[in-house]
C-alpha cells in the first residue's frame, strides 16, 4: 500500500531541515517559494519564517481503524467501548467524512 504524504509548517526559529537542498518556504508576508538550504541556513535575500516538512499521511489508515473499532463496539456492546469513547469516535469519523 502506497503511503500518501503531507507537508507541515515548521518554524525556522524552532528547527531547520536535516538535509541540504531545496525546500518549500513561507516568508513573513505568507509568500510561498523554494529556498535553498545549505550550511545550516537558507540562502535567500528574504529570510523564511517557515519551511514545509514532508511527512507520511496516515489519515486513511487511521480512519479505517476507527471504523473497525466503532463497528465492533456497535456489534458487541458488552465487550465494546464505553459510550463516551463511541461518541468521540463517531464525532471524529464524521469530521473526516465532511473534510474529505
Topology record:
Elements: E1 4-11, E2 21-26, E3 32-38, E4 41-43, E5 50-57, H1 59-75, H2 83-99
Task: Describe the protein's architecture and organization.
It is a single chain. The protein is 34% helix and 32% strand. With 100 residues, it is an alpha+beta fold. The chain has two domains: 54 residues, no CATH class; 41 residues, no CATH class. The protein has a five-stranded antiparallel sheet, with no helix packed on it.
Short descriptors:
single chain; 100 residues; alpha+beta; 2 domains; five-stranded antiparallel beta sheet
Briefly say what this structure is.
With 100 residues, this protein is α+β, with helices and mostly antiparallel strands.
Tell me what portion of residues adopts beta-strand conformation. Answer: 25-35%
Q: What summary fits the major beta sheet?
A: 5 strands, antiparallel
**What order do the helices and strands follow?**
EEEEEHH
Radius of gyration, Cα only, in angstroms? 20 Å
Class based on secondary structure composition and strand pairing: alpha+beta
The amount of helix comes to 25-40%
Amino acid at each position: 500500500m502506497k503511503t500518501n504524504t503531507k507537508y507541515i509548517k515548521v518554524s525556522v526559529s524552532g528547527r531547520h531541515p536535516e538535509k541540504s537542498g531545496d525546500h518549500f518556504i513561507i516568508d513573513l508576508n505568507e509568500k510561498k517559494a523554494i529556498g535553498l538550504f545549505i550550511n545550516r541556513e537558507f540562502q535567500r535575500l528574504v529570510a523564511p519564517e517557515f519551511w514545509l516538512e514532508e511527512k507520511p499521511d496516515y489519515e486513511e489508515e487511521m480512519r479505517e481503524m476507527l471504523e473497525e473499532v466503532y463497528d465492533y463496539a456497535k456489534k458487541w456492546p458488552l465487550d465494546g467501548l464505553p459510550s463516551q469513547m463511541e461518541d468521540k469516535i463517531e464525532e471524529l469519523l464524521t469530521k473526516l467524512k465532511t473534510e474529505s
